[in-house]
Amino acid sequence: MIKPNRVPDLGPVPQRRTVGAELVRRLIDEQFPQWADLPVRPVSHGGWDNCTFHLGGELVARLPTAAEYALAVGKEQRWLPVLAPRLPLPIPVPLAHGRPGADYPFPWSVYPWLDGEPAAPGRISDPVRFAVDLAGFLATLQDIEATDGPRPGKHNLFRGATLRTYEPQAERALTALHGRIDTSLAREIWTSALDARWDGRDVWFHGDVAAGNLLLAAGNLTAVIDFGTCGVGDPACDTAVAWTLLTADGRKAFRERLSVDDDTWARGRGWALWKTLVSAARTGQEAREAQRVLGEIFAEYRTGR
Q: Distance (Å, rounded) from C-alpha 225 to C-alpha 231?
């Protein structure tokens, strides 16, 4: 367990490698000949930490793009089959555990394909219902016995540990954004998040509750995917979605259903702020979306203040 007074070191930026369909084809043929006749094609928006490929129409191969991301494979293989039957919505459960081979150096996995489209504000049919359903999923996840679960570490980039791990990134972004946003207010929010205390009780968390990992059908939440950053520790990181995706009414319903105390809410706001500041310091659509989220964070904080 990461002690509250220790700040983990993220280490260097992971060195990603390219993963293509031909490589996946060779790995499948070598290790899982029962699927050798299934076509391989990339999944649209297949991810950053992992490259994902359709394997026929009902399976996907998921391959880490760097050594750091590969640390999550064993965790997912061990724990997702344990978590899945206890949760109210489908999650990915691995069907096969691939090994290094065909000039690919990392372990990897084969999963069933879960249908649905990634969540987005314009696709959600009822924002309050969506928020309550998501909070109910997270509440159930937090209630699962966490004693032997994986503590924060490099396998999940220290999600569930202290926000101070990300302080250098936040500070660099604030410097880059000087004159473009209200950096005084952003620093006030960031400081309040760093100062908010955690009671130290380990619970399960997802670690990356973001639009792309929440699947919809007919506008309703139907599945939660990508548990690469999951673990047990401080669940505040999972509340960041309240600012990045939910409406104001949805945010209120989400907090009430999840019974989030003031300190956890402040830390969650800090997780949302860190990620948004880093994105806002970039360019293009990512930066424009980050500006929208900053508006949500600033407005909600001012109201509470």
A: 14
Contact 188, 254 (CB under 8 A): no
pLDDT of residue 298: 98
DSSP string covering 117-184, please? EE--GGG-S-HHHHHHHHHHHHHHHHHS--TTSPPSSGGGTTTTS-GGGGHHHHHHHHHHTBTTB-HH
Q: Residue ranges of the alpha helices (H) in the chain?
A: 21-31, 67-83, 127-143, 167-176, 183-195, 241-244, 248-258, 262-280, 284-304
Of 45, 217, 203, which Cα lies nearest the Cα of 130?
217
Please give the Cα distance from 152 to 233 (Å, whole number): 7
Backbone angles phi, psi at 34, to 5 degrees: -65, -15
Contacts of 221 by beta carbon, 8 Å cutoff, 6+ apart: 89, 119, 130, 133, 134, 137, 214, 215
The type of residue at 267 is R
Q: What is the pLDDT of residues 38-53, one digit of tens each?
A: 999 999 887 889 999 9
Q: Which two tokens stand for residue 294?
A: 């900053």
